[in-house]
Design brief:
By secondary structure, this protein is α/β, with parallel strands linked by helices. Helices cover 38% and strands 23% of the residues. Strands 1, 2, 3, 4, 5 and 6 form a six-stranded mixed beta sheet that branches. Strand 1, helix 1 and strand 2 form a beta-alpha-beta unit. The longest helix is centred in the first third of the chain and has 15 residues. 38% of the residues are buried. The chain binds flavin mononucleotide. The site of flavin mononucleotide has 18 residues, from helix 1, strand 3, strand 5 and strand 7.
Length: 182
């Protein structure tokens, strides 16, 4: 980057909090690499016109972004395309297993693909989120099982999230974190 400190805004749309957790994790990891990072709910987004990059994440509901994310992207399209954007989704599809599950997991929901393409994002990544068995209706559990899902709880893979964050840091040429002194 031309400047010494990269300014990164991370915006998230969440219904139950797991997407916020991922956004905060990415924010902390990028801060450790020397970036100036602001993490905010998309409904309370700061002005991004001074940002060197934006990371935007939404929970997946019914194969779509949450409405507040769709609205923000529509209203700030020009500001977003003017800078590098990384997009992530948080849903259950990446947690599906087996031959059928892997086929579902490989499909990018059309609404996310449309945003990915219209913003020409640097990268899009789908992360597994959180689903508690007790909160899931019996019929939804059956659908989930038939699709190759059987795991419940916090399915977020922090190693995968960390690895994706490293690719953002590398693209923005952030510093490598100093290992703690022994
Ligand atoms: C009403 C509802 C609809 C959902 N639809 C999908 C879906 O279409 N695809 C998917 O992969 N996950 C779906 N999920 C799972 C959520 O995306 C997952 O629980 C995620 O972790 C939620 O993120 P949040 O905690 O930030 O709200 C749905 C969850 C709910 C409650």
């Amino acid at each position: 980057m031309a400047k010494d400190t990269a300014r990164i805004v991370i915006l998230y749309a969440t219904a139950a909090g797991s997407t916020r957790g991922i956004a905060e994790y990415i924010g902390n990891a990028l801060r450790e690499r020397g970036a100036e990072v602001e993490v905010a709910a998309i409904g309370k987004a700061p002005d991004i016109t001074g940002a060197d990059a934006v990371v935007l994440g939404s929970a997946v509901h019914n194969a779509d972004l949450l409405p507040q994310a769709t609205e923000y992207i529509r209203d700030h399209h020009d500001d977003l395309v003017a800078r590098p954007v990384w997009l992530f989704s948080v849903g259950l599809a990446p947690a599906l297993r087996g031959p059928i599950g892997r086929r579902f997991a490989a499909v990018v929901p059309a609404k996310f693909a449309a945003v990915r393409d219209s913003l020409a994002v640097r990268d899009y990544h789908a992360f597994a989120g959180v689903m508690h068995r007790a909160d899931t209706a019996w019929w939804a559990r059956l659908v989930y099982l038939a699709m190759g899902g059987g795991r419940y709880g916090d399915l977020r893979d922090w190693n995968e999230i960390h690895a994706w964050t490293d690719t953002i840091a590398a693209a923005l040429r952030l510093s490598t974190p100093t290992p703690p002194a022994r």
